[in-house]
């Protein structure tokens, strides 16, 4: 049993195969980079009093190319909404200190809202009827939340 011998007829075929494989890899990387850069400039505001939740959501969104702003309470969120052009808000429904952020967002804005709720899907459905575009129950899958954000921004 000997080694595989490369004759002069096989060499052009192998270099063509290597070229095709390298091209496919380049196209995949280019497409992934293009899809991530599609969301550059889209600002997402995360309003949650739980730092761990904010960190997890921020990391997931930044990985996809979003700009992320964070607020620990409703007062800080209202300040950011006045100062910056926010494209979407991810809001914890049961924050300890909402300071009117939910009423403000429901009343006078066209910014899509995704409500996070620890109470389950029923509470998320109630949030949608209260003016939120989407609802997500905690614990949630970060990839699924990012998919919901993208879907809202495409509308």
TrEMBL record:
Transmembrane portions of the chain: 14-32
Pfam family, one: Response_reg
Transmembrane helix recorded as keyword: yes
GO molecular function, a single term: transcription cis-regulatory region binding
Record GO biological process: regulation of DNA-templated transcription
Domain of life: Bacteria
Cited InterPro entries: CheY-like_superfamily, Sig_transdc_resp-reg_receiver, WalR-like
Recorded GO CC terms: cytosol; protein-DNA complex
Residue span(s) of domain Response regulatory: 43-153
Keywords associated with the record: DNA-binding, Membrane, Phosphoprotein, Transcription, Transcription regulation, Transmembrane, Transmembrane helix, Two-component regulatory system
PANTHER family, per database record: REGULATOR OF RPOS (PTHR48111), TWO-COMPONENT RESPONSE REGULATOR ORR33 (PTHR48111:SF1)
Official protein name in the record: Response regulator
């Amino acid at each position: 049993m000997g080694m595989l011998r490369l004759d002069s007829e096989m060499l052009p075929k192998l270099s063509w195969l290597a070229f095709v494989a390298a091209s496919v890899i380049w196209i995949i990387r280019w497409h992934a980079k293009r899809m991530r850069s599609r969301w550059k400039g889209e600002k997402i505001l995360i309003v949650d009093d739980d730092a761990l939740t904010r960190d997890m959501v921020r990391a997931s969104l930044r990985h996809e190319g979003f700009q992320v702003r964070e607020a620990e309470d409703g007062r800080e969120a209202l300040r950011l909404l006045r100062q910056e052009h926010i494209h979407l808000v991810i809001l914890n429904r049961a924050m300890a200190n909402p300071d009117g952020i939910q009423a403000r967002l429901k009343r006078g804005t066209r910014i899509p809202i995704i409500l996070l709720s620890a109470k389950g899907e029923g509470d998320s459905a109630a949030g949608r009827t209260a003016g939120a575009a989407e609802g997500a129950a905690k614990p949630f899958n970060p990839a699924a939340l990012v998919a919901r954000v993208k879907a809202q921004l495409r509308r």
